[in-house]
């Protein structure tokens, strides 16, 4: 075949040229406004965000920003986190100013209206700083607030740090509790599998050596397996396993008093009737060995067990409902010893 016409060759090359044009730096936004360097010419290019939130290359020494003339130093440059610089700027000011404006509802004597007005004022300050509105007056207002409330700011900051540590400790403990419970249930399942395998092997050995008929041996082992299965799946057995797991958790944390009152963080919101999904109350747990025919079938149901259901919750709730409603409907002065 002869050479292709020149116009046909140029048509075949056009898609490749357009593809290169798409990858050029100006389309990606990573272009220095001063030297015009981009990722296409310099693959290792990394643009940092300056104090005035303009992306430029930092070479050496202090120099004014070529866009807004703000004096910049190397310590003023940070790596960009968000694609939108407006979001980057707002997040920066929220972190910076939020350290000072950390009043709580209790600081206003639980006056919700006063607290809401305070939050609205904080949002106005954030808006002004993020959008460049009355920046000097807003900064003076922030500094004046910081000086007037420095003791309260330090106190609330210490409270927040302690609460964060306590929450982290509580989450770690809950994770450890889940791990111990999971391991206990896995051991329970392994015990069931081992018992089933031993029973099967014993039946085979008896079939080989016993003079009884095969039907009698098989029926006897089926009955025995059903009894063992009911015993292993019983609510009492599962509750005993979980109770042992609770003892292991308590033993692991009994010497750790770092946050001994971590469970009392929400003591102000305590509700005596709110035990539906909390840990069982020791005084309301049924004695070991109690058999409830209404929940035995549910205890061995795979779907119910997978959802985390235990008969213990039904028993506890029934007892709570009975005893918590004893005084229902009685007025003042009607309660007798």
From TrEMBL:
Annotated keywords: Nucleus
Chain ranges of the MAT1 centre domain: 72-247
GO BP terms: nucleotide-excision repair; regulation of transcription by RNA polymerase II
Gene Ontology MF terms: cyclin-dependent protein serine/threonine kinase activator activity
Pfam families: MAT1 (PF06391), zf-C3HC4_5 (PF17121)
RING-type domain sequence ranges: 30-69
Name of the protein this chain belongs to: RNA polymerase II transcription factor B subunit 3
Species annotation: Physocladia obscura
Lineage: Eukaryota, Fungi, Fungi incertae sedis, Chytridiomycota, Chytridiomycota incertae sedis
């Amino acid at each position: 075949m002869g050479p292709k016409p020149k116009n046909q060759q140029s048509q075949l090359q056009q898609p490749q040229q357009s593809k290169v044009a798409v990858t050029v730096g100006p389309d990606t936004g990573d272009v220095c406004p001063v030297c015009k360097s981009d990722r296409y010419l310099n693959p290792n290019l990394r643009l940092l965000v300056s104090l005035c939130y303009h992306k430029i290359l930092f070479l050496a020494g202090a120099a004014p920003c070529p866009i807004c003339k703000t004096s910049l130093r190397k310590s003023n440059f940070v790596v960009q986190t968000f694609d939108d610089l407006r979001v980057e700027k707002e997040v920066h000011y929220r972190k910076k100013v939020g350290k000072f404006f950390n009043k709580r509802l209790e600081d206003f004597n639980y006056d919700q209206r006063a607290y809401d007005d305070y939050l609205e004022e904080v949002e106005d300050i954030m808006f002004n700083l993020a959008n460049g509105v009355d920046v000097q007056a807003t900064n003076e207002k922030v500094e004046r607030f910081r000086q007037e409330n420095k003791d309260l700011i330090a106190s609330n900051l210490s409270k927040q740090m302690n609460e964060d540590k306590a929450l982290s400790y509580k989450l770690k403990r809950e994770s450890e509790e889940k791990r111990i419970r999971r391991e206990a249930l896995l051991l329970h399942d392994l015990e069931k599998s081992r018992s089933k395998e031993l029973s099967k092997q014993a039946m085979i050995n008896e079939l080989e050596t016993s003079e009884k008929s095969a039907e009698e041996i098989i029926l006897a082992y089926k009955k025995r397996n059903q009894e063992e299965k009911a015993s292993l799946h019983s609510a009492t057995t599962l509750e005993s396993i979980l109770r042992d797991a609770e003892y292991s958790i308590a033993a692991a944390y009994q010497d750790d008093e770092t946050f001994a009152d971590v469970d009392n963080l929400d003591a102000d919101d305590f509700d005596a009737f709110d035990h539906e999904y909390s840990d069982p109350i020791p005084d309301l747990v049924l004695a070991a060995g109690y058999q409830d025919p209404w929940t035995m079938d549910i205890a061995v149901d795979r779907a119910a067990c997978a959802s985390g259901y235990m008969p213990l919750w039904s028993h506890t709730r029934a007892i709570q409902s009975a005893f918590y409603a004893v005084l229902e409907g009685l007025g003042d002065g009607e309660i007798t010893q």
